[in-house]
Design brief:
This protein is an alpha+beta fold. The protein has one domain. It has three helices and ten strands, in the order αββααββββββββ. The strands form two sheets. It has a six-stranded mixed β-sheet with strand order 5-6-2-1-8-9. A four-stranded antiparallel β-sheet has the order 4-3-7-10. A hairpin with a 2-residue loop joins strand 3 and strand 4. It is globular, with a radius of gyration of 25 Å.
Amino acid sequence: MHFGSVERAPEHKLWRLHLFLGLVSLILLIGWSSVAAAHRAHAGLTEIERSRSNTEFEIIHRVFAHDLEPYLFGENNGVWEEQLEDVKKIGTYVEAHFALVVDGEALPTTYIGAETDGEFIFIYFTTPIPDDLPSFDVYNALLTNIKDDQLNLVNLTLDGETQSHYFQFGEQPKTFVMKTSGAD
C-alpha cells in the first residue's frame, strides 16, 4: 500500500529546528528553575519612618503571602479572602511577633490594616513616638515560628538616613537610635 511520498527536509536544514527546540527547552528550563528558586529564601521587610506630623512612627511590614497565608488560613486552603475577619487575624499575628520596646515595655500600636499586592502582603501599623526618645529596641519574630530560615530586615529611616538590623529565629531585640549622624 502506498500513501504517497512525504518530502523530508534536507539534513543540512534540520539544524535550525534543533536550535529552535533547544532554545525553547532552555528558556522553559530557566523559567521553571527561576520560579522554583525565586522564593527559596524566606524574607520579610519592615520599614519604620516618622509620620509627617513627626508624632508617630508609621510601620509597614512586607511579607510573602505564600509564607503567611497557609499558616493563618490553612483551614481555608491557605488563602486569604481579604474579609474583615482575615484582616484582623493578620494584625493579631503581627502584634504577637513584632514590637517597638522602650525601657522594657512595648509601645502601644494601632493596626491600620493589610492588603495584598502581587505575591506580598503589606501590613500597616502606627505607634506614638515618646518625647525625648534617644533610642528604642525592635523585636521582630515575624514568620520565624513558621520558617526556620526566615530572615527579617528592619529599616528605620530618620532625616534621610537609614539604620538597619536583620532578625532571625530566637534573636533578642536590637537597638535603633533616634539621632542620626547628620542631626544636631
